[in-house]
Amino acid sequence: MSKATGVKFLTNTGYYGGRRGKFLPADAFRESADELAKRWTAEWKEGIEGTGIRPGFIKTGVDTGELTAVNRKLIKAAASCHLETGLTIAGHTGDGRAALQQVDMLMRAGVSPAAWIWVHAQNERNQELHLQAARAGAWVEFDGVGPTAIDRHVELVKTMRSAGLLDHVLLSHDAGWYSVGEPRGGTVRGFHTLFTEFLTALKTAGLSENAIEQLIVKNPANAFAIGVRSA
């Protein structure tokens, strides 16, 4: 797809521990954090499964509330992998409590929160936790930009701007969801709302062209830049 379109796609290494670990392979439970980190680091150095294609970031996933033992292992492994590769860690995260626990764990492991993205931060209703994570240096990603969520996402962005933290915000549709076997892939959510409606809504809310460029150009480039960010 990348060759056909000229668009650069980033794939990932790491393991998704959300949904109570139902998608984790057996080695996630059997191996230590260091062993998992070596596995992911090898994909960065050698390519994924012999393809020569290297990951552009580390993806993890945790549920809401107190992190489980296996989720903690994944965060430790991600921290070690980051220190070896400089890859950013994108953490699917259930709520603010789990987010702040990850920030704490990364810092204890010597990784700056600037190397970590709080994925699905919009699901946390307490915006003070967004601010707390961003002030620590983390990236706060508001996913789910879509036709029915424009007003909510505008307010989330405005809150971060008012706190002087717009340079820690990422935006995403979290769209797609092609369904195998259904006609035309089933009901597919498009990837256009940010450009066709949301940016206009941000301008109407008073965001400048410079602020919008910060959100959709500078912030993603900085968030996914490869380089070790130590605490």
Describe the structure.
The chain has 231 residues and is an alpha/beta fold. It has one domain: Metal-dependent hydrolases (TIM Barrel). Helices cover 45% and strands 10% of the residues. The protein has nine helices and six strands; from the N terminus they run αβααβαβαβαβαβαα. It has helices at 2-5, 26-30, 33-46, 69-85, 96-108, 127-136, 150-162, 193-204, 209-223; strands at residues 12-13, 57-62, 89-93, 116-119, 139-142, 169-171. A six-stranded parallel sheet has the order 1-2-3-4-5-6. Strand 3 (89-93), helix 5 and strand 4 (116-119) form a beta-alpha-beta unit. The longest helix is centred in the middle third of the chain and has 17 residues, at 69-85. It is globular. The termini are far apart.
Keywords:
single chain, 231 residues, alpha/beta, TIM Barrel, six-stranded parallel beta sheet, 45% helix, 10% strand, globular
CATH architecture: Alpha-Beta Barrel
Please report which band the strand proportion falls in: under 5%, 5-15%, 15-25%, 25-35%, 35-45% or over 45%: 5-15%
Number of domains: 1
**Biggest beta sheet summary:** 6 strands, parallel
Brief write-up:
The chain is α/β, with parallel strands linked by helices.
SSE topology sketch:
Elements: H1 2-5, E1 12-13, H2 26-30, H3 33-46, E2 57-62, H4 69-85, E3 89-93, H5 96-108, E4 116-119, H6 127-136, E5 139-142, H7 150-162, E6 169-171, H8 193-204, H9 209-223
Parallel strand pairs: 1-2, 2-3, 3-4, 4-5, 5-6
Helix pairs in contact: 3-4, 5-6, 7-8
